[in-house]
């Protein structure tokens, strides 16, 4: 399956933008983020659902921080990305990694062959929506296979930023790099329409929303939040869960 053609398609330019991003990034810094509290919260939420003795696939693995983390925990996992330079950098860092160049819309996997499909902040980058990639994920998963998906949420801060950009007459969508957000209901609809049973849907990343506001919530380091952001983010997660979450985590299952 190839990505659907749409007018003004940003598919290739978004891929090229990711190649530039990964060239300028650090694998060590990406690995360090896996120990941040926000990442640990997500990791600890989906880990109980991952099959320990099945092959897993991370679709859109970038510099392979998740692949390396899960592999060190004893999981069998393949990383796939359409930005090939990210795969070369990852393989140079750890030659033992199982990595493959490919597109999330045409996965090089047989039907019913994968135990879990993981995707973290990937499917929001396609102008034609997430449905084609989700259907491809459904195809390759074994019956009972697990879907783990995170997507940015249009929280109050994001909506305010969009309003301010609109008032200033600035473009709301970049011509070269496509990125969208999905509401809770849109996430549920997309996952269910692809055939998955939703196990859980949770708001996540509240502290990172605060990081985006400014220096008051930032610590030294690569997108690191400080103690104020962590404490307030923890409170917001319980008091205003769907107003300040940066991402939504969905865990689903292929029926059968």
Short description:
The protein has 256 residues and is α/β, with parallel strands linked by helices.
In percent terms, what proportion of residues is strand?
Answer: 15-25%
Report helical residue fraction: 25-40%
Structural class: alpha/beta
The CATH superfamily is known as Vaccinia Virus protein VP39
Low-confidence stretches: none
Number of helices: 10
The major pleated sheet works out as: 7 strands, mixed
Major sheet: arrangement of strands: 3-2-1-4-5-7-6
Mean pLDDT: 92
Could you state the order of secondary-structure elements as H and E?
A: HHHEHEHEEHEHHEHHE
CATH architecture type: 3-Layer(aba) Sandwich
Number of domains: 1
- End-to-end C-alpha gap: 23 Å
Count of beta strands: 7
Tell me the CATH topology.
Rossmann fold
Question: Taking Cα atoms only, what radius of gyration do you get, to the nearest Å?
Answer: 18 Å
Protein described:
Helix content is about 40%, strand content about 20%. With about 260 residues, it is α/β, with parallel strands linked by helices. It has one domain: Vaccinia Virus protein VP39 (Rossmann fold, 3-Layer(aba) Sandwich). The chain has a seven-stranded mixed β-sheet, with helices on both faces. The longest helix is centred in the N-terminal third of the chain and has 13 residues, at about 10-25.
């Amino acid at each position: 399956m190839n990505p659907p053609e749409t007018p003004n398609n940003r598919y290739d330019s978004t891929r090229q933008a990711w190649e530039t991003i990964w060239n300028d990034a650090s694998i060590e810094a990406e690995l360090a983020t896996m120990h941040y509290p926000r990442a640990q919260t997500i990791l600890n939420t989906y880990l109980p659902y991952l099959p320990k003795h099945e092959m897993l696939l991370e679709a859109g693995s970038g510099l392979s921080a998740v692949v390396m983390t899960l592999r060190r925990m004893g999981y069998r996992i393949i990383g796939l990305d359409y930005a090939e330079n990210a795969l070369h950098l990852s393989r140079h860092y750890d030659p033992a990694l199982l990595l493959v160049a490919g597109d999330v819309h045409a996965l090089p996997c047989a039907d019913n062959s994968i135990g879990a499909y993981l995707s973290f902040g990937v499917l929001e980058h396609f102008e034609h929506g997430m449905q084609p990639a989700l259907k491809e994920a459904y195809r390759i998963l074994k019956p009972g296979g697990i879907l783990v998906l995170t997507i940015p949420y249009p929280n109050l801060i994001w909506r305010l930023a969009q309003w301010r950009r609109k008032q200033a007459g600035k473009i709301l969508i970049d011509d070269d790099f496509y990125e969208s957000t999905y509401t809770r209901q849109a996430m549920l609809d997309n996952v269910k329409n692809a055939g998955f049973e939703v196990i859980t849907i949770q708001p996540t990343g509240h502290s990172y929303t605060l990081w985006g506001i400014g220096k008051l919530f930032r610590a030294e380091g690569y997108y690191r939040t400080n103690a104020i952001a962590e404490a307030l983010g923890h409170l917001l997660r319980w008091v205003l869960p769907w107003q300040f979450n940066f991402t939504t985590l969905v865990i689903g299952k292929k029926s059968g």
